[in-house]
Amino acid sequence: MENNRPYQICTKTIMDTTDPNIVFDENGISDYYHNYHQSIVPNWHTDKAGYDELMKIAEKIKAEGKGKDFDCIIGLSGGLDSSYTAYVAKEIMGVRPLLFHVDAGWNTDKAVGNIEKLCKGLGLELFTEVINWEEMKDLQVAYLKSGVPGQDAPQDIAFFSGMYKFARKHKIKYVLTGGNFSTECCKEPPEWGAYPGIDKWLVMDIYKKFGNNKLKTFPILDILEYKVFYQVFLGMTVFKPLNLVPFIKADAENLLFEKYGWEKFQHKHHESRFTRFYEDYWLPKRFGFEKRRAHFSSLILTGQMSREQALDRISRPELDEQTLKNEFEYVAHKLDLTVDQLQAMFELPITTFKDYRNKRQVINFGAKILTALKIENRLMR
What we know:
mainly alpha
């Protein structure tokens, strides 16, 4: 991808010009830093005010869930954010969530173990939706052939669409997610593959060009259908409890370990073997994008990591070269590809969503409205 700007890195975070739209002030401080202090901090309350708001919402969820088996639903991956959300929901809010897991075929053993430990320790019921592997594989290979950076889209689509469709079918109004400012206040730019929501036009155009079979059971819920029909007309509410409680990554990991034997991961999103491969190998080596920049910058801004620590860690791969080579072979074989075939896809011309049918302009317009209404405080590109 062409980016002719001279290289520059933020003097407060480690976000840099691999985000082509980053803006620096005269002191070399990026708009990510300014957005955090101007838009997020004033609207982020984890003190008594946050706790009072949390419990107010909890009482509302309980009241509207009376007589039902569950009063809310939580998508559980086995990673930190969703796991801690389950803990907060049960032990602090006192609500009755159904834990919902989508098995897209890439779970690590540690993730599976964490899910089992949490369900048992919290005494909560788990529903697992298993995605048809042939369809999952077909869509993932189509995305690899397409040349776009967003190779993790098929998994994200399966996770979110599966949960929201289940919630609608079973008339569960409240969806609790692990989205939070503490570890995610620095939003990844779309150029890095962080497409804002599920664009069904884009998904189906890529699949039409590169897929082999019809997606008969694979769940795809378009962002506009979800934002307009599910939320406005059906009244579904997405709530982020971690924004109303103190959420420090290391403390949360320790608490979950001490209470339930939950095991932490080396880095964010490592609960999925494909996501780990995509973010640690495919994205940085093929496109030059490091999602760790956003992850570490979030921790810098929230005082959980020093900039020096982040620069040191970003200077080397998260996984060693032999492990990455083994993962390349594993992913190829799991997708029924030879290593040479996957390597050939790695060397294909690079494309972006702009090369396919999409409704990005509509989504961007909606994002601007959410920002203006202060429903979204993170910097939206």
